Every structure is written in structure tokens, then in C-alpha cells.
Amino acid sequence: MYIEKISLLNFKNYSELELSFSERINLLTGYNGSGKTNLLDAIYCLCLTKSFLTSSDQQMIFTGQSYFSALGWFNENSSISKVQYDFDGKKKVFTVEKKPYPKLSDHIGRFPAVVLTPHDTDLIRDGAEERRRFFDTLFSQADHAYLEALIRYTHFLKQRNALLKQASDGLLIDRVLMDAYDNNLLQYGSVIAKKRAYYLERLMPVFREYYTLLSPEHEISGIVYETTVLSESFITEFKDAYKKDILLQRTTKGIHRDDFRFLLKNEPIKNFGSQGQQKTFVIALKLAQYELIKECTGHVPILLMDDIFDKLDELRIEKLIELVKKRISGQLFISDARLERSSKFFQTDWKEFRMFKISQGTIEMVDLPLKPEKNA
Description:
Layout: E1 2-11, E2 14-20, E3 25-29, H1 36-48, E4 68-76, E5 79-87, E6 92-96, E7 99-100, E8 113-116, H2 122-125, H3 128-142, H4 144-168, H5 175-214, E9 221-226, H6 234-240, H7 242-248, E10 259-264, E11 267-268, H8 269-272, H9 275-297, E12 302-306, H10 314-327, E13 332-336, H11 339-342, E14 353-359, E15 362-366
Parallel strand pairs: 3-13, 3-14, 8-12, 12-13
Antiparallel strand pairs: 1-2, 1-4, 4-5, 5-6, 6-7, 9-10, 10-11, 14-15
Helix pairs in contact: 3-4, 3-9, 4-5, 4-7, 5-9
């Protein structure tokens, strides 16, 4: 599966754009701020119905305009699907072949994508919410049942918290309704926790392999899923927390409190890992994400690599390039302000590559650099 062509109207810094891609490797060059990341984000939006940069559709509208439209032509086994994402300033409409989905979530996993960005190390430095969001996105693309359980859990959690707030305001709680919310949270929470543990176990061997291949030191790396939901006493703990929940106006027990601990040499990488080690860790994690989605869905994800060479030394860059060339079989997009660095990818059949020069919302396809002579 790959995206053949994209058409943008009033999307971020692109007032109007139509561009065709190679089904293998596409290199986006240009100064920082020229629009490389915005183009990658447009592709990501068409795959996952949302941006990897912002949660606001309004912020994706070209300055001075009132709407945006993004259209992508996806090729899967020579069958073309036209995916369109429109936002008129108020309403978001997402269609495939001009047919809207009954539920937006039905699109997730159909055209999977994985993005690597310079900000991925925030997964290590930030709080548990960011790590949960990452793994939820990963597992939702790999398993639609996981996504459905997560949507239901989130719905009932919001409703339960609203009831708890009523109690703190002195209003009586409908115990029948609260019990219904509790039962649903326990049911869907158990499904999610079991699937998180299961998919993390499948992910770990691939992640460790990638980290070892990328790291010059070959340190031992690991990820530990931290949850109380799978303990035998959790139902009792959940019900015993009721008075505390009323006091705090929120549900204090459940999968929404889970975390994933990132380790290097059995120590928290957040505290003991260098910038290079942290960057290597999250790159290995994203590449393992790519493999897990491919294995679970049968679809080869589109891989979007946005300026990921930043803060990597030359040895790690060489290892990453070699690894991507050997392991990534699907469509690949690479953005880099430094052409001489990325041109290391261009060592095989030139027909598989396209290079684009981006400057302030305008794009032109440019000739590839000459392949260096073997004896040079």
C-alpha cells in the first residue's frame, strides 16, 4: 500500500498543491520552516484522520482562509482509493470514494502510517499520558477491537467523572447509573489492559533487535508495562476508591492511570540515557511499531521520517540508513534540510527514488545527485 498522489487546498502553508510520489523512497529537502513537515503531516492526516502536530483542525487552515481540503490517492494491489479530509472551520468530514464513514474510527488501520519526528524523545521525558497515547495509537492501528474498547472506555470514564463532580457539588448520585458506568469501565479496562500486555510482549523482541542494531554499545533495553488492572484485587481496589474519587472529582483507578517504563541497562533511560541513546531508543520503538502493524494487519505502513537525523552521530546515522534500506519494504518519506546526509540513501536503482525541493509552500521535483563512482 502506498500513496500515489496528494492534492492540498489551504492546508497549512500550502495554498494549493498537487504532487505525485514514488512508491518507494521520497526525499523532501528544503530549509527549516519551508513546509517539509507540513507535507508529511498531510499524509499522516489522510491515514489516521488527525495531525501528528496539533489537535486543532483550525490550526491547519492556511492563513486568511476559512477551510482546508486534503485529498490522497492510495494504491493497494493496483486498486485506487481516494481519501478526502475536509474542514470548513466548524465541521470535519472524512470520506473514501466520496462515502463518509458511519464512525471516523472505522478508517483507523485501513491505511496505516508510522511517523518519526525530532520530538519523539518527549515520550521519554514527558508524563505517562504521552506514552499511553503512543501505545494506544499503535495498538489501535494493529487491532480494531482495541480501538473500539478504548473508545467505549473513554466514553464511560467521561460520564463517570461527570457524576463524581455532581456529588462534590452536593447533588445526589444515581447509584444505578454509577454502577453501570463502573461495570463498563471494569469490562473494557480489562480488555485494554490484557491487549496492552499481549501486544507489548509481541513488540519487545523486534524492539530489542532494532535497538541492538542501531546502538554502537549494544546496551540492554526494555519496556515495562505498569498497571494494577490485571491484579486479582483490582475490582476491590476500584470500588474502595469511591470516596476518594468523589473527593477528587475523578476516577483514580483504571487503565487511564497506566504507564510504560522505558529502561536502559535496567535503569530509567529518562535519567541515565544520553541524547543519542534516547533518540536511538525511540527510533527503535517506532520501527518496531512499523513491524507490528505490518504483521497484525497485513498492510505495509507508510513510514514518515521527519528530520530524524537530528542529534544522531555519524555512526548511528549510518546504522539507521543501512537498517532502513534492508528492513523497510514499503513507501518511505524522508525530510532533511541537509541533502548531503540524506543522499546516502540513493545507492540503488534510481527509479525507486524521487527528490523534491520545498520552499515556502512551493515544491518542485529535482534531479537526483549523480551516483558516486565506486573507485572514487
